[in-house]
Amino acid sequence: MKLLLLGTGGYHPSETRQTACLMLPEVGLVLDAGTAMYRIADHLQTDSLDIFLSHAHLDHIVGLTYLLDIVHRRPLIRVTVHGEADKLAAVREHLFAEPLFPVEPPFETRPLLDEVSVEGTAVEGGGRVHHFPLVHPGGVLGYRLDWPGHSLAYVTDVTATPDAPYIEQIRGVDLLIHECYFKDDHVERAALTGHSCVSPVAQVAADADVGRLLLVHVNPLADPASPLDIDTARAIFPHTELAVDKMEVEF
Fold it and tell me: How far, in whole angstroms, is CA 23 from its chain's centroid?
């Protein structure tokens, strides 16, 4: 199965990175709708699209306004945006408030159920989408996706710690996509802003016994040539990679 990392930056776009948007084109599933959302039009393989939002901060939802161009280029039978009910309401009320964006794109919203997992049309081949809470200002969800022979977890906008409660939710996945905004010299700032540093993220991957770790949601102000200490991460968890925009990963 193929994962496209269309946007790997955090907060705002930079010269090298758009903000959060990951796509599984074979099943028509998207994780978050940041500024890279416009890129999905080139990769659509299905007649429907399921978008799962981690939360409603602008760098993760602004791409919903790009749906007008996407469905113009490639008409879709259905577009469904999944998320927590209060976050979906905020998107409708504020992002698509008439003075800001008067023409609403054709999509429906579906609040996530109270249960841990969501099953059905979003995933083919007996797949399951589970969501779990993360600690971040305003509230965030992480996601775990499982198919026969394939699994991944998406964890963004959280401060990684060795005893992170979500470790059990991601245990054993083939691929962990985890935010990593700061190098290790910004521990206090990471805790203040609800973001992560390199070593704790690598330790989470090691403790969760995942197959591979991809670092995303990178600080847009960091040196693009070396935004994170990958050698530090690999000393803790060798199978670590720094994600870049338009990266394709088979898992």
Answer: 9
Closest CA to 182 of 197, 193, 171: 197
Helix, strand counts (H, E) of the chain: 7, 14
The chain-wide mean pLDDT, for the chain, equals 93
Rounded CA Rg of the chain: 17
Closest of 4, 30, 35 to residue 20, by C-alpha:
35
Mean pLDDT over 206-220 rounds to 98
Q: Can you tell me the distance from the alpha carbon of 181 to that of 221, in angstroms, rounded to the nearest whole number?
A: 10
- Write out the two tokens for 215: 């670092």
Closest by CA to 180, choosing from 129, 130, 234, is: 234
Asked if residues 245 and 18 have their Cβ atoms less than 8 Å apart, the reply is yes
Assessment of whether the complete model's pTM goes beyond 0.85: yes
Report the distance separating Cα 11 and Cα 71, nearest Å: 26
Q: What are the φ/ψ torsions at residue 20 (nearest 5 degrees)?
A: -50, 120
What pLDDT score was predicted for residue 114?
52
Residues in the chain: 251
pLDDT confidence of residue 148: 87
pLDDT digits (tens, 9 = 90+) for 55-81: 999 999 999 999 999 999 999 999 999
Q: Which domains does the chain have, with CATH numbers?
A: 2-246 (3.60.15.10)
